[in-house]
Structures are given as C-alpha cells and as structure tokens.
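To whoever is on call:

I kicked off a structure prediction for a single chain this morning and the downstream step that reads the tokens threw a length-mismatch warning. I double-checked the sequence; it's 197 residues and nothing unusual in it as far as I can see. Pasting both halves so you can look.
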Amino acid sequence: MYTKNLLAYSCNSRAEMKFNKKINLMKVLILLLLFIICGVFIRNLTKSLEYRNNSSFFVADFKNDITMLSEAANVIETERTYNKYLDVNQFGTDGKLINSKEITKDLSATLIKIADMNNNHMIDAEEISELGIMRFRTDIYQKELKTLQFSLKSQDHNLKNFIVITKGKYAGTILYNGNFKFIDNDNKRYFGLEIYV
C-alpha cells in the first residue's frame, strides 16, 4: 500500500515537474515575444523620429539645389542676352515646350495655382505655352554649375528631372518634375515654385 502511494506520488510529482517546465517555458517565450515587440516598436519610433529630423535636411538640400540651379539659369540667360551663347535657347532650355502629360500630377496641381487661366483645374498646352515651360539642356547646366563651383546635394540631383519657366512673371523659376517627395516637418511639399511665390 505504502509503495503504491509512493509510486502514485512519484508519478504525480513527475507530471507536475513536466507541467511546471512547460509553464516556465511558456513564460520565457511570452517574455521573449514582449521584448521583441518592444524592440520593434522602439526601432520604428526611432526611425520615424530620424526621418522627421532628416526630412528638414532633405528639404534644405532641395531648396539649396533650386537656388543654385536658379543662379545658373540666370547666368546662362544673362550670357545668352549678351551674345555669349548664340546657339542657346532661353534659360539654357532645349527650346521645346514640355507636354502637359510629361508634368507630374503633383506638380500640375501646384502649377494650377499660378497658371489655370480657364479655371478648368488642369494645366493644358495653352497654359504651358503661356509660361513657356521647357526642359534644361543638361550639358549647358552641367558646364555652368561646374564654372560656378556648385554641386547639387539633394536626394534627386538628376538635371533631367528639373524644368524651367521661361516666360512671364515667373521666368527663370526652376521646378522639380521628378518622383522624390521633398516634404518638410509641417507636411508641406516642395517643387521649387514655393520658394518664389
């Protein structure tokens, strides 16, 4: 009888130990999972704060690039008017009006503020013609930037992604027509026009 009870107690004790080991293992796994979740949350929060801080640097670099390109455009135009560049179009452009389909949707929405003459909430060929929006001749701009010892530093410094207004009140205004989004800490997006308007 005593042996039977001892055997039953021994079996119960082993079962209880196995159960306790499983419980302890579950506790460790749950704690590990909580640590991982906290780590991911902290990492994402840190990245978000870094991005927020970096976005102001990205916008500052973009504004600086626009200023340098504007300076280059003005120098090119001045030299052109004094016959240094006889074979160059206004502001060092390729001389062809940009097609409205080539202007990004977001830039079009910004241009509507200054160019929508017929109030149709679109930028059409007539309005593009009125502003004289054209692409750069990248070879001329590269040469001028080198002469002025300017180097572009924004995330997108591909000259093919910039265009220039050649007519009217905004002549010489450089616009960004690429895919990067230059957004400041106040959630304002920049295309170049905002610097002059």
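Update from on-call: the warning came from a stale cache, not from the record. Cleared it. Sanity check on the structure: The radius of gyration is 32 Å.
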